[in-house]
Write a structure and sequence with these properties.
The chain contains 10 helices and 12 strands. By secondary structure, the protein is an alpha/beta fold. Strands 1, 2, 3, 4, 7, 8, 9, 10, 11 and 12 form a 10-stranded mixed sheet that branches. Strands 5-6 form a two-stranded antiparallel ribbon. Helix 2 crosses helix 3, helix 3 runs parallel beside helix 5 and helix 8 packs across helix 10. The longest helix has 13 residues.
Amino acid sequence: MEGLTRRQFLKYTGAAVASAALLGPGCAAQPDEAGADQRSSAPAADQAYLAVARGSDPAAITQAAIAALGGIERFVRSGDDVIIKPNICVDYHPPEYAATTNPTVVATLVTLCLGAGAQRVRVMDTPFGGTPQSAYAVSGIEEAVRAAGGEMEVMSPVKFVKAAIPDGQDITEWDVYQDILDANVVINVPIAKHHSLARLTLGGKNLLGVILRPNLMHRNLGQRIADLTSLVRPTLTVVDAVRILTAHGPTGGSLNDVQQTNTIIASHDIVAADAYAATLFGLTGADIAYVKASADMGLGTMDLDGVKVEEISV
Protein backbone atom coordinates (compact mmCIF):
# COMPACT_ATOMS: atom_id res chain seq x y z
CA MET A 1 0.00 0.00 0.00
CA GLU A 2 2.96 2.28 -0.60
CA GLY A 3 2.09 5.67 -2.09
CA LEU A 4 -1.55 5.77 -1.00
CA THR A 5 -3.22 9.10 -1.44
CA ARG A 6 -4.97 10.50 1.64
CA ARG A 7 -8.32 9.77 -0.03
CA GLN A 8 -7.43 6.13 -0.65
CA PHE A 9 -6.08 5.71 2.86
CA LEU A 10 -9.26 7.07 4.41
CA LYS A 11 -11.32 4.72 2.26
CA TYR A 12 -9.36 1.68 3.48
CA THR A 13 -9.41 2.69 7.13
CA GLY A 14 -12.90 4.15 7.35
CA ALA A 15 -14.47 1.09 8.91
CA ALA A 16 -11.88 0.90 11.66
CA VAL A 17 -12.20 4.58 12.43
CA ALA A 18 -15.99 4.44 12.64
CA SER A 19 -15.74 1.85 15.39
CA ALA A 20 -13.82 4.26 17.61
CA ALA A 21 -16.57 6.74 18.42
CA LEU A 22 -15.23 7.83 21.78
CA LEU A 23 -11.61 8.09 20.78
CA GLY A 24 -11.90 10.69 18.05
CA PRO A 25 -10.82 10.65 14.41
CA GLY A 26 -8.51 7.76 13.67
CA CYS A 27 -7.56 7.21 17.30
CA ALA A 28 -8.08 3.46 17.38
CA ALA A 29 -6.82 2.71 13.90
CA GLN A 30 -3.38 1.15 13.62
CA PRO A 31 -1.01 0.87 10.65
CA ASP A 32 -1.94 -2.06 8.46
CA GLU A 33 0.42 -4.91 7.65
CA ALA A 34 1.99 -2.96 4.80
CA GLY A 35 2.73 -0.02 7.07
CA ALA A 36 0.13 2.40 5.72
CA ASP A 37 0.66 5.96 6.82
CA GLN A 38 -1.28 6.98 9.93
CA ARG A 39 -1.88 10.71 10.15
CA SER A 40 -4.45 11.02 12.93
CA SER A 41 -3.24 8.44 15.40
CA ALA A 42 -3.86 8.70 19.12
CA PRO A 43 -1.50 11.02 20.97
CA ALA A 44 1.36 9.56 22.95
CA ALA A 45 1.15 9.60 26.73
CA ASP A 46 3.08 12.87 26.97
CA GLN A 47 1.04 14.61 24.26
CA ALA A 48 -2.17 16.56 24.65
CA TYR A 49 -5.36 15.33 23.00
CA LEU A 50 -6.38 18.96 22.73
CA ALA A 51 -4.22 22.03 23.29
CA VAL A 52 -5.35 25.52 24.22
CA ALA A 53 -2.74 28.28 24.09
CA ARG A 54 -3.31 31.85 25.21
CA GLY A 55 -1.17 34.95 24.76
CA SER A 56 -0.88 38.23 22.91
CA ASP A 57 1.36 36.93 20.07
CA PRO A 58 -0.64 34.89 17.50
CA ALA A 59 2.49 33.20 16.14
CA ALA A 60 3.72 32.19 19.59
CA ILE A 61 0.40 30.72 20.73
CA THR A 62 0.00 28.83 17.46
CA GLN A 63 3.46 27.33 17.89
CA ALA A 64 2.76 26.50 21.54
CA ALA A 65 -0.51 24.72 20.77
CA ILE A 66 1.09 22.58 18.06
CA ALA A 67 4.07 21.79 20.30
CA ALA A 68 1.72 20.55 23.04
CA LEU A 69 0.21 18.08 20.56
CA GLY A 70 3.65 16.61 19.91
CA GLY A 71 4.88 19.06 17.31
CA ILE A 72 3.98 19.52 13.67
CA GLU A 73 6.08 16.43 12.88
CA ARG A 74 3.29 14.32 14.35
CA PHE A 75 1.15 15.38 11.39
CA VAL A 76 3.50 16.44 8.58
CA ARG A 77 6.32 14.38 7.12
CA SER A 78 9.08 15.06 4.65
CA GLY A 79 7.78 15.30 1.09
CA ASP A 80 4.14 15.81 2.08
CA ASP A 81 1.63 17.73 0.01
CA VAL A 82 -0.14 19.94 2.59
CA ILE A 83 -3.30 22.00 2.18
CA ILE A 84 -4.29 24.59 4.77
CA LYS A 85 -7.94 25.61 4.70
CA PRO A 86 -8.65 28.91 6.48
CA ASN A 87 -11.89 30.88 6.42
CA ILE A 88 -11.65 33.61 3.76
CA CYS A 89 -15.33 34.30 3.22
CA VAL A 90 -15.44 37.90 1.96
CA ASP A 91 -13.28 40.63 0.44
CA TYR A 92 -14.65 43.64 2.30
CA HIS A 93 -13.41 43.19 5.88
CA PRO A 94 -9.76 43.28 6.98
CA PRO A 95 -8.61 40.86 9.71
CA GLU A 96 -9.60 42.99 12.70
CA TYR A 97 -13.31 42.42 11.92
CA ALA A 98 -12.91 38.69 12.74
CA ALA A 99 -14.73 37.46 9.64
CA THR A 100 -11.62 35.76 8.25
CA THR A 101 -8.88 33.66 9.79
CA ASN A 102 -5.97 35.51 11.35
CA PRO A 103 -3.19 35.76 8.72
CA THR A 104 -0.38 35.30 11.25
CA VAL A 105 -1.90 32.03 12.43
CA VAL A 106 -2.07 30.73 8.86
CA ALA A 107 1.46 31.87 8.02
CA THR A 108 2.83 30.27 11.19
CA LEU A 109 1.33 26.94 10.18
CA VAL A 110 2.88 27.29 6.72
CA THR A 111 6.27 27.90 8.30
CA LEU A 112 5.91 24.90 10.62
CA CYS A 113 4.90 22.58 7.78
CA LEU A 114 7.77 23.66 5.55
CA GLY A 115 10.12 23.27 8.49
CA ALA A 116 8.93 19.68 8.86
CA GLY A 117 9.92 19.01 5.25
CA ALA A 118 6.61 19.43 3.43
CA GLN A 119 7.20 19.49 -0.30
CA ARG A 120 4.37 21.91 -0.90
CA VAL A 121 2.04 23.96 1.29
CA ARG A 122 -1.01 25.47 -0.36
CA VAL A 123 -3.66 27.70 1.21
CA MET A 124 -7.14 27.95 -0.31
CA ASP A 125 -10.81 28.71 0.21
CA THR A 126 -13.91 29.57 -1.83
CA PRO A 127 -15.11 33.03 -0.75
CA PHE A 128 -18.78 33.89 -1.23
CA GLY A 129 -18.21 37.66 -1.11
CA GLY A 130 -15.98 39.01 -3.89
CA THR A 131 -13.45 37.16 -6.01
CA PRO A 132 -10.93 34.76 -4.48
CA GLN A 133 -8.12 37.07 -5.55
CA SER A 134 -9.60 40.11 -3.84
CA ALA A 135 -10.66 38.17 -0.73
CA TYR A 136 -7.21 36.61 -0.40
CA ALA A 137 -5.63 40.08 -0.56
CA VAL A 138 -8.01 41.93 1.77
CA SER A 139 -7.84 39.17 4.39
CA GLY A 140 -4.08 39.69 4.67
CA ILE A 141 -3.63 35.95 4.27
CA GLU A 142 -2.14 36.05 0.79
CA GLU A 143 0.69 38.38 1.76
CA ALA A 144 1.44 36.47 4.97
CA VAL A 145 1.41 33.06 3.27
CA ARG A 146 3.67 34.12 0.42
CA ALA A 147 6.13 35.68 2.86
CA ALA A 148 6.22 32.35 4.73
CA GLY A 149 6.98 30.40 1.54
CA GLY A 150 3.51 28.97 0.92
CA GLU A 151 1.26 29.12 -2.14
CA MET A 152 -2.20 30.66 -2.48
CA GLU A 153 -4.41 28.61 -4.77
CA VAL A 154 -7.64 29.75 -6.40
CA MET A 155 -9.89 26.70 -6.34
CA SER A 156 -10.69 25.87 -9.95
CA PRO A 157 -14.25 24.71 -10.77
CA VAL A 158 -12.84 21.92 -12.94
CA LYS A 159 -11.15 20.31 -9.92
CA PHE A 160 -14.37 19.54 -8.08
CA VAL A 161 -15.38 15.88 -8.39
CA LYS A 162 -18.45 13.97 -7.29
CA ALA A 163 -17.31 12.01 -4.26
CA ALA A 164 -19.17 9.24 -2.49
CA ILE A 165 -19.84 9.74 1.23
CA PRO A 166 -20.23 6.13 2.40
CA ASP A 167 -21.09 7.01 6.00
CA GLY A 168 -23.41 9.88 5.14
CA GLN A 169 -26.79 9.77 6.84
CA ASP A 170 -28.46 12.53 4.83
CA ILE A 171 -26.12 13.04 1.88
CA THR A 172 -24.25 10.17 0.26
CA GLU A 173 -22.32 12.12 -2.38
CA TRP A 174 -21.26 15.68 -3.10
CA ASP A 175 -18.88 17.63 -5.34
CA VAL A 176 -15.65 18.04 -3.38
CA TYR A 177 -12.36 19.66 -4.37
CA GLN A 178 -10.17 16.85 -5.68
CA ASP A 179 -6.93 18.12 -4.16
CA ILE A 180 -8.47 18.20 -0.68
CA LEU A 181 -9.26 14.51 -1.05
CA ASP A 182 -5.81 13.65 -2.36
CA ALA A 183 -3.52 15.75 -0.15
CA ASN A 184 -1.34 13.97 2.39
CA VAL A 185 -2.33 16.47 5.07
CA VAL A 186 -5.29 18.84 5.41
CA ILE A 187 -5.12 21.44 8.18
CA ASN A 188 -8.45 23.07 8.92
CA VAL A 189 -8.07 26.61 10.32
CA PRO A 190 -11.45 28.22 10.99
CA ILE A 191 -11.93 31.48 12.82
CA ALA A 192 -14.38 31.07 15.70
CA LYS A 193 -17.38 33.27 14.98
CA HIS A 194 -21.11 33.64 15.26
CA HIS A 195 -23.24 32.29 12.44
CA SER A 196 -26.89 33.24 12.00
CA LEU A 197 -27.96 29.74 10.95
CA ALA A 198 -25.42 27.32 12.42
CA ARG A 199 -24.99 29.38 15.64
CA LEU A 200 -21.21 29.17 15.27
CA THR A 201 -18.72 28.75 12.47
CA LEU A 202 -16.01 26.38 13.71
CA GLY A 203 -14.07 23.50 12.17
CA GLY A 204 -17.04 21.56 10.81
CA LYS A 205 -18.74 24.56 9.25
CA ASN A 206 -15.44 25.69 7.71
CA LEU A 207 -15.39 22.55 5.55
CA LEU A 208 -18.18 23.99 3.39
CA GLY A 209 -15.42 25.90 1.64
CA VAL A 210 -14.16 22.73 -0.06
CA ILE A 211 -17.40 21.83 -1.85
CA LEU A 212 -19.63 23.12 -4.62
CA ARG A 213 -23.11 24.49 -3.87
CA PRO A 214 -22.56 24.94 -0.13
CA ASN A 215 -25.88 26.81 0.10
CA LEU A 216 -27.68 23.52 -0.55
CA MET A 217 -26.14 22.14 2.63
CA HIS A 218 -28.30 24.52 4.67
CA ARG A 219 -31.20 22.08 4.60
CA ASN A 220 -30.56 19.84 7.62
CA LEU A 221 -27.30 21.71 8.03
CA GLY A 222 -26.05 19.97 11.18
CA GLN A 223 -26.29 16.45 9.78
CA ARG A 224 -25.01 17.42 6.36
CA ILE A 225 -21.90 19.05 7.81
CA ALA A 226 -21.31 15.90 9.87
CA ASP A 227 -21.71 13.78 6.74
CA LEU A 228 -19.16 15.92 4.91
CA THR A 229 -16.79 15.70 7.87
CA SER A 230 -16.96 11.90 7.68
CA LEU A 231 -15.41 12.15 4.21
CA VAL A 232 -12.94 15.02 4.50
CA ARG A 233 -11.65 14.33 8.05
CA PRO A 234 -8.92 16.96 8.47
CA THR A 235 -5.60 15.76 9.78
CA LEU A 236 -5.45 18.67 12.21
CA THR A 237 -7.91 21.37 13.26
CA VAL A 238 -6.56 24.69 14.55
CA VAL A 239 -9.29 27.05 15.70
CA ASP A 240 -8.29 30.70 15.47
CA ALA A 241 -9.78 32.50 18.46
CA VAL A 242 -7.30 35.35 18.54
CA ARG A 243 -10.36 37.47 17.83
CA ILE A 244 -13.87 36.05 17.86
CA LEU A 245 -16.98 37.46 16.22
CA THR A 246 -19.77 37.34 18.80
CA ALA A 247 -22.73 38.54 16.70
CA HIS A 248 -23.91 39.28 13.14
CA GLY A 249 -21.89 36.47 11.63
CA PRO A 250 -20.66 35.10 9.42
CA THR A 251 -19.57 38.39 7.84
CA GLY A 252 -19.88 40.84 10.74
CA GLY A 253 -19.06 44.43 10.02
CA SER A 254 -18.87 46.10 13.40
CA LEU A 255 -15.88 46.13 15.70
CA ASN A 256 -18.38 46.22 18.58
CA ASP A 257 -19.06 42.54 17.82
CA VAL A 258 -15.39 41.55 18.02
CA GLN A 259 -13.85 40.20 21.20
CA GLN A 260 -10.08 39.82 21.63
CA THR A 261 -9.61 36.40 23.27
CA ASN A 262 -5.99 35.70 22.23
CA THR A 263 -6.58 31.94 22.07
CA ILE A 264 -5.63 29.06 19.77
CA ILE A 265 -7.29 25.65 20.08
CA ALA A 266 -5.75 22.66 18.31
CA SER A 267 -6.47 18.95 18.08
CA HIS A 268 -6.42 16.02 15.69
CA ASP A 269 -10.09 15.66 16.73
CA ILE A 270 -12.27 18.23 14.95
CA VAL A 271 -15.20 17.52 17.27
CA ALA A 272 -13.16 18.11 20.40
CA ALA A 273 -11.68 21.31 18.99
CA ASP A 274 -15.12 22.61 18.08
CA ALA A 275 -16.61 21.58 21.43
CA TYR A 276 -13.95 23.53 23.31
CA ALA A 277 -14.28 26.53 20.99
CA ALA A 278 -18.02 26.65 21.68
CA THR A 279 -17.29 27.37 25.34
CA LEU A 280 -15.77 30.72 24.35
CA PHE A 281 -19.31 31.77 23.44
CA GLY A 282 -20.93 30.36 26.58
CA LEU A 283 -22.12 27.28 24.67
CA THR A 284 -21.27 23.59 24.61
CA GLY A 285 -20.59 21.27 21.72
CA ALA A 286 -24.09 19.83 22.13
CA ASP A 287 -25.54 23.28 21.43
CA ILE A 288 -24.06 23.24 17.91
CA ALA A 289 -26.01 20.83 15.68
CA TYR A 290 -23.10 19.80 13.48
CA VAL A 291 -20.79 19.20 16.43
CA LYS A 292 -23.37 16.97 18.12
CA ALA A 293 -24.16 15.14 14.87
CA SER A 294 -20.46 14.54 14.24
CA ALA A 295 -20.03 13.16 17.76
CA ASP A 296 -23.07 10.93 17.30
CA MET A 297 -21.47 9.55 14.12
CA GLY A 298 -18.29 8.68 16.00
CA LEU A 299 -16.15 11.31 14.29
CA GLY A 300 -14.75 12.62 17.57
CA THR A 301 -15.71 13.33 21.14
CA MET A 302 -17.57 16.25 22.71
CA ASP A 303 -16.81 15.04 26.21
CA LEU A 304 -13.57 16.77 27.11
CA ASP A 305 -13.56 15.53 30.70
CA GLY A 306 -12.12 12.20 29.62
CA VAL A 307 -9.28 13.48 27.44
CA LYS A 308 -6.04 15.28 28.14
CA VAL A 309 -6.51 19.01 27.58
CA GLU A 310 -3.33 21.05 27.97
CA GLU A 311 -3.75 24.77 28.55
CA ILE A 312 -0.71 26.97 27.97
CA SER A 313 -0.07 30.63 28.65
CA VAL A 314 2.58 32.23 26.48
